[in-house]
Write a structure and sequence with these properties.
Blueprint (H helix, E strand, L loop, with lengths): L1 H8 L5 H33 L5 H6 L4 H17 L1 H10 L8 H21 L14 H13 L3 H18 L8 H4 L13 H25 L5 E4 L3 H6 L4 E4 L6 H6 L22 H4 L8 E8 L20 H15 L1 E9 L10 E10 L1
Parallel strand pairs: 1-2
Antiparallel strand pairs: 3-5, 4-5
Length: 363
C-alpha cells in the first residue's frame, strides 16, 4: 500500500507513462484486495473472527505503546547508526534522481518506522520489525553514495560496515550511557542487543527441551498453562496449551487489561490461576490438567557446582509449592500435586535431568 501510494504521487510527467503507471497500480491494488478479502472471509469462517487474535493483543494503540515505540526506533538507530546514515544521505538531492523509485523507498521506510511506533516496538533483538524497510534503505544509501565523490563514498561505506560489524560482537560505537535511557523492554533489566539475542538462544534451547519432555510424559487431550509456548507447542503438538499472554487463548484478551509496564509484544499477561476462575473455566474447552512444567535437576546442586547451561530456572522450593497449594485449595477448591519424571540420557536428555509437572485435581 505504501509503495502504491508513493507510485501514484510520483507519477511521471509523461502522460502516456503516467497512464500506464496508474493502470498498473489499479491492477495490483485489485489483486491485493481480492486476496486480502478472501483471507479475511476464510479467517472468519474458521475462527469466527475478522481480526487475528495476535493483532488484538499486540496492536492496540495507547500513549504508553507510542512512547515505547519511539524508544524502540531510537534504540535501533543507536545500535545500527549506519541505517540512519543511509537514510540521511539518501534523502539529499533526491529530486535529481529517479523520483518515483526514491519516493517509493522513502514511503516504505517512513511507513515501516511509523508502524513500529504505533504498535510499540518488539521484544526481539536488532529491530526485526524494521527489516521490511532495509531494502528501501539500501536503495537510498546507493543513491546517496552515487552523489558523493569516490573517496568520501568509500570512507563512509567502510565506516558504516565497521560500526555494524562491531555491533555484531557487542562492541558497537554507542556507549551504554547513551543506550540505557532508551531501554524499551520495560519489564526486564537493560540488555544490549547481543545480550538479548544470547538470552533468547538459551530460552529457545530450554523450551525445546521442555517440549520434548512434555511430549513423552503427557497424553493427548491433556492441557497445560504456559507463557513462552512456541518451541514447547511445536515439540508437544498433542498437548493443549492455555497461553497466559493470550496470543492463542482468546479468553485472556477478552478479560484481561493491558499492563502498564510491559515488554513489547507482552502487553497482556495473566497469572496462571486466572484459568481456574469459574467464569474462565466455563469458557475453556476443558479444565487445565497442569498448572505448569519445568525441566530441572533430578538432584540438588553440590557445593560450589555451577548450574548447567540447559537449566533455565530452578524448580520452586517446598515452601513456595506449599503456599501455592494452599492458595489453590482455599480460593479455587483445586488440589495441587507435584509429579517428577526422570529423563533418560538415551532419549537425548541431559544427565541428571527431570521433568517437574504441577498436576491439578478438581475435587
Amino acid at each position: 500500500g505504501l509503495i502504491l501510494a508513493a507510485t501514484l504521487v510520483g507519477s511521471a510527467a509523461d502522460s502516456v507513462l503516467r497512464q500506464r503507471m496508474r493502470a498498473a497500480v489499479a491492477v495490483t491494488a485489485a489483486a491485493t484486495a481480492t486476496v486480502f478479502i478472501a483471507h479475511a472471509v476464510w479467517r472468519h469462517g474458521y475462527y469466527g473472527e475478522w481480526v487475528p487474535n495476535t493483532a488484538k493483543i499486540k496492536a492496540e494503540f495507547s500513549s504508553e505503546r507510542l512512547y515505547r515505540g519511539l524508544l524502540y526506533i531510537s534504540s535501533f538507530f543507536m545500535a545500527l547508526p549506519a541505517v540512519l546514515v543511509a537514510i540521511g544521505i539518501g534523502t539529499q538531492r533526491w529530486r535529481e534522481g529517479p523520483t518515483q523509485l526514491l519516493l517509493a523507498a522513502a514511503a516504505l521506510v517512513v511507513g515501516s518506522f511509523g508502524y513500529c511506533v504505533w504498535v510499540g516496538g518488539d521484544f526481539m533483538p536488532f529491530g526485526r520489525f524494521l527489516v521490511p524497510a532495509l531494502p528501501a534503505v539500501a536503495l537510498l544509501f546507493a543513491w546517496g553514495l552515487s552523489r558523493l565523490a569516490p573517496k568520501p563514498a568509500w570512507a563512509l561505506t567502510l565506516l558504516c560496515i565497521l560500526s555494524s560489524g562491531l555491533e555484531a560482537y557487542d562492541r558497537g560505537p554507542a556507549p551504554e550511557a547513551l543506550r540505557r535511557p532508551l531501554h524499551f523492554r520495560i519489564d526486564r533489566e537493560f540488555q544490549t542487543e547481543i545480550a538479548r539475542w544470547e538470552e533468547m538462544q538459551r530460552n529457545a534451547a530450554a523450551w525445546n527441551l521442555w517440549g520434548r519432555a512434555l511430549a513423552e510424559h503427557t497424553t493427548p487431550g491433556e492441557s497445560i498453562i504456559l507463557g513462552g509456548i512456541g518451541a514447547i507447542g511445536y515439540r508437544a503438538p498433542e498437548l493443549t496449551i492455555y497461553d497466559s499472554y493470550g496470543l492463542v487463548t482468546p479468553e485472556v484478551g477478552s478479560h484481561a487489561t493491558p499492563l502498564k509496564n510491559a515488554s513489547p509484544g507482552h502487553d497482556v499477561r495473566v497469572q496462571n490461576d486466572f484459568f481456574l476462575q469459574p467464569e474462565i473455566l466455563g469458557e475453556l474447552p476443558d479444565k487445565p490438567t497442569y498448572l505448569g512444567a519445568q525441566v530441572g535437576l533430578a538432584r540438588p546442586l553440590s557445593a560450589g557446582e555451577s548450574a548447567p547451561d540447559w537449566l533455565l530456572t530452578p524448580f520452586p522450593d517446598e515452601t513456595y509449592i506449599q503456599n501455592l497449594s494452599d492458595h489453590l485449595s482455599k480460593d479455587f477448591g483445586v488440589r495441587l500435586e507435584v509429579l517428577t519424571h526422570p529423563l533418560e540420557t538415551d532419549d537425548g536428555f541431559p544427565e541428571n535431568s527431570a521433568l517437574n509437572l504441577l498436576r491439578l485435581h478438581y475435587d
